[in-house]
Amino acid sequence: MTTPELNERQKRYMHIAKSLESASKEYGSAALGLQQGMSEEHVHRHVKNANAAVESAFPELFAPPKQSAAPKLAPAARDYTNLKVLLIALLVLGLLYAFVVFGPTGDLTKTWMLQDLQKNVAYPK
Question: Alpha-carbon dihedral of residues 18, 20, 23, 27, nearest 10 degrees?
Fold first, then answer.
């Protein structure tokens, strides 16, 4: 009982086995070349072929990671805290200024006359 999925897995495993066998032979040739004193270029060529065989067996390990799109952030709601504090401070300062300009400051020289003061502080008879 074979399914297409099973056949694909079998083909993939056979490809990996052949690639690793080829890589093993190349690494063996490189080791033999080092042992026999062959040139570095000869050894390097065998190692490079072996690395290519391993990469073809497992391409997902050697592929660069895909760049994922940065998640889109929702626009931040505006923070009106500083504006609220400023408006409250301006309201308090405006109220105090209105008190100073329009009179209810406790300054008796603006609303009382000297005669009123003398009447109010006179000793009762």
Answer: -130
